[in-house]
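As a warm-up, study this chain.
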Amino acid sequence: MTDTVSIQNQLEDVHRNLKTELAGIGRIAVAIYDVQTDILKTFVHSTDGEPPFSHYEAKLQQVPALRELADSHSSRIIDDMHWLEDSGSAHIHRLMQTAYRSSYTVPFYDHGRFFGFLFFDSRNQAYFSAPVVRHLSLYSHLISLLIINEVSRVSALRSAIEVARKMSHTHSEETGSHLDRMARYARLIAQALADEDRAEEFDDEFVEFVFLYAPLHDVGKIAVPDNILLKPEKLSADEFEIMKSHVAAGMDIVESIASGFHVGAGQHVEVLRNIVRYHHEAYDGTGYLSGRAGKDIPLEARIVTVADVFDALTTQRCYKSAWSNDDAFALMRKLSGRRFDPDCIASLIANRPKVEAIQQQFRSNNVFHEAYMDDL
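Now compare it with the structure written out below.
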């Protein structure tokens, strides 16, 4: 994205230009692939009228037709979706409900690695003739480059910050499994909120950036001495003040690296800034550093706070054993509306089976000191 325009906005611009040449293209959508979990998830779309769906995800192995396209590097044309009405595909069913009748699906790749799919849909049957497909080839290439370049920029920025964090301590205070879990809890919460008709707050692009940047919330801990990070007892008042300084340190790191990547005003960087700056704010205003309360705390920070505290409670630390999910949920319910956003707590608890699936996939034993445990 440019410094002021989101990927969503850019796709909408491409769609408007394309419709001057191919008026029958009613929808362009992009889904990207997470190889760690085999999840294919909606990312951005441009749609005339009501979108058929958003915040959609599925395991690629459970969608054999798309899996085959990804493996074979082949595109697919469906001239009449009525032919697939009895296929059991929720994707096809929802498209038909919103009057789409034909589609063109194109997988795209980054240096040979499967990255995702482009979907072009039309309300006209048999719209994707050979001339139309030839015309779309340039647009397909343009959109895939846009997505790859912008997601890669986000990944590069995130990687640069992670490298800075890892190089600053001989003892890693946050293991990869902890970050994998809490990032996926954050995405789970955001998706659940979005499914409650809050798409104006949580589009797919926002959900993805919360997932990508959640692991960087505590990057400022590189400025905190190991004797505090790894202390097996409750921190003293002076030590806790030093621990709290990681928020300001993290903000400085983000600004410095974002400036180096020339993305300081980018929409996605604002999500990162908000996560780093406000993830220790409390819903009742008693947190730090700014003392913000309620909806004045950015959405992404409220989500990350819940995701990170839940993981801190349910995993072993240097000063505590792991809590059960029941005990963690009970405490978080008790602190709902005080420490935590009630909607975020409800969304996490309502998706307990998915929470437990994440815990099973990303197991670890963490032994560092989590500042949350001193201010609960």
